[in-house]
Design brief:
Structural class: alpha+beta
CATH topology of the largest domain: Beta-Lactamase
Strand order of the largest sheet: 5-4-8-7-6
Radius of gyration: 34 Å
Helix content: 40-55%
Largest sheet: 5 strands, antiparallel
Strand content: 15-25%
Number of domains: 4
CATH class of the largest domain: Alpha Beta
Number of strands: 20
Amino acid sequence: MCQYARTRFSEEILTDVLHTHPLVIVGESVCKNFYYVPVEEFLSKRKTSDLDRLLKNLLDREQADVLLQERTDFLNETQHLTKTGGWEFNLETETMLWTDEVYRIHGVTKAFDPNHIEKNVSFYAPKDQKIIDEAFHRAATIGEPYDLQLQFITAEGEMRWVETIGRPVMQNGKVVKVGGYIMDITARKQIEQTLLEKTKIFETFFENAETQFVLLDHKFNFVRVNKTYAKACKREVSEFAGHNHFELYPSDAKSIFEEVVKTKRSFQTKARPFVFPDEPDRVTYWDWTLTPILNNEHEVELLVFALNDVTEVIQTTEKIKKMMNVRGKFLDIISHQLRTPLTSILWSLEMLLKGDAGKVEATQKRFLETTYQASRKINDRLNDLLIAMDIEEGRVLLETEEISLDSLVTSCVIEEKNNAALKGIALTTHIPEACLTVEGDAHKLRSIITKIIDNALMYNKTGGYVEISLAQVDHFALFKVVDSGIGIPSHEQSRVFERFFRGSNAFTMETDAFGLSLSIAKYFIEQHHGMIGFTSQEGKGSEFWFKIPLKHKT
């Protein structure tokens, strides 16, 4: 019996075969879009070997068509996910071919005719039209490739950024085609702008901070120092270039530096003595931190050496009091040096965003909002530092009142919706209609709720989710936040509520957090006679919760 006799083939293929092989007869067994060829008729018209050969060709063709479609679908999906489209212009026929993603990037349908080069150029921002026109002309005439990042205006008028690449195809020394790719890089450009703004803030802080900062390479050579460090060492900033730290300042701390490079873990010490080589009779005391910065290969590339001279404190008061005074003084300095200019920055940005200084274009507003959010974060971190200091020194008092916790949670969620939308995170709530009344400090409870939601958004990913719920459990109000974020490594979970603790995987997500929010939240919840906890799995997300007693009904 012919081994392919029971195989089903598409109508299109069998029709084609019937034209070329008239002895293959279609029988009466027919279903939608497919024919069943009876074994008896096949065997009566052809030799089995002929039928095998014929039907094997049919099967190979059908499989090839399926494979081609699968690869086409995969290519289209890849282009969509990477926002990259391909194009090719044939100089001989003067025809342009676009893939589906190119149409999408331009904001047009396939009814658009891409064969007009002038019309295609008009999609670029006016200042960039000459650049792309000349680049394409050189590619088509002298075979010069190009790779450009330009501003682009879609058919809907939306300003975007694209990277456009053109590569000439030569035959017998002549350009016959120009092909390439166009990629939507708007998101990347926005990130670059945000990083630029953060870099400016860092530069300002680095150069003007009272803390002494040093950047070293992995062999402890000086890369950069700030003015405060140079002054403490009685040198000019330029004098450190080309020198090794332990060449200028030999000490037994070298083994600590080597251990940090080896383990890739930070080291912090308090009141460590040091004798300057040019002042052998004077012992100084230093608080310092050494933090490694890793490269893409997870190797130490730089070391951040942050120092504070605590010599005077150690010499005048008891060790513990002096250490607390140094920390308090340091935070006060930060407060005076950063809060005033930060307040001015935030006020100015708010005025600009409201249009008080004139009309703000959409692109400008987007950048202003990014800068405003970054400044707000710095201000929030500074407030966390000051709250942590108040907690340490016992200056925190609760202003107790009756609070509708469901209304408070709803208010906090409304404030966070914009942040969630900007990050592309789905924010859902499950809040009961019944009023859940508690006795507590409304300001501090709002701070706790906001911090927990902020963390769920901050350490999440685009396309993720955050679920917020409030319910009555026995005589308690239970608040929960579930997210699809990065989670917390299991070996670090016991330290989550420690001050200044941040998970090792958190540094890749948000580098400007101090790790104080959860320790503050825990303190405030316990002051409300409540409990706080969490469950988490690295890479899959976390669930943070707290519960506080409901007010007794009278």
